[in-house]
Specification:
Nucleoside Triphosphate Pyrophosphohydrolase; about 160 residues; 3 helices; seven-stranded mixed sheet; about 30% helix
Length: about 160
C-alpha cells in the first residue's frame, strides 16, 4: 500500500504541475472608493487613465494586513495629510492594463474598499495629474473608466 500511495501522490503532483500551464498570473491590489458628502474621489494618472486610489501589493507586504497596504497607497498617492475611515471590502475587480515600461499586459485582481474621507489636503503623488470629486448620483463612470475598473465602479455605485 505504501508504494501505491507514493505513486498516486506523485501522479497527483505531476497532474497539478501540468495544469499550472493553464493558470493565469495576477498582481493583487487594493482600491478605495473614497467618499465625502455624496461625492467619490477619482484621479487621472500620468498615462492618461482615470483611477481610484490604491495599488498593487509589494513583495515585502505579503504578510502585511491589507489595511496597512491601503495606508501606504493613500500616503503615496494623496499625501501625508489625508485622513479617512476605512470601511469593508465591497467590490472585487479584475482589470487588464498595458505596462508602460515593458509593453506587456498585466492582469490585476483588486479588492475595493469603501472609505470615508475625514480631513486633510489632497496632494497628488508623482504618478497622478488631475483629481475630481464626482457626484455619485450624476456621475457616468463610462466617461472615465474602462475595463475591470469600469465594471467595479458600476458595481460599487449599484451597492449604494
Amino acid at each position: 500500500m505504501g508504494k501505491r500511495g507514493c505513486k498516486g501522490q506523485s501522479f497527483a503532483i505531476l497532474s497539478k504541475v501540468i495544469k499550472m500551464e493553464d493558470k493565469d498570473t495576477y498582481f493583487v491590489a487594493v482600491k478605495l472608493f473614497l467618499e465625502d458628502d455624496g461625492k467619490l474621489f477619482i484621479f487621472k494618472d500620468k498615462w492618461g487613465d482615470w483611477d481610484l486610489p490604491g495599488g498593487r501589493i509589494k513583495k515585502d507586504e505579503f504578510n502585511a494586513p491589507l489595511e496597512e497596504v491601503v495606508a501606504r497607497k493613500v500616503k503615496e498617492e494623496l499625501g501625508e495629510a489625508v485622513s479617512y475611515t476605512l470601511g469593508k471590502p465591497e467590490v472585487l475587480m479584475r482589470h487588464e492594463r498595458v505596462e508602460d515600461d515593458t509593453g506587456e499586459t498585466a492582469r490585476i485582481f483588486a479588492v475595493g474598499y469603501s472609505a470615508k474621507y475625514e480631513s486633510g489636503e489632497v496632494v497628488l503623488g508623482e504618478h497622478h495629474t488631475e483629481m475630481k470629486w464626482v457626484d455619485k448620483n450624476e456621475f457616468k463612470p463610462e466617461d472615465y473608466f474602462t475595463g475591470g475598473w469600469l465594471k467595479g465602479v458600476k458595481e460599487w455605485l449599484g451597492v449604494r
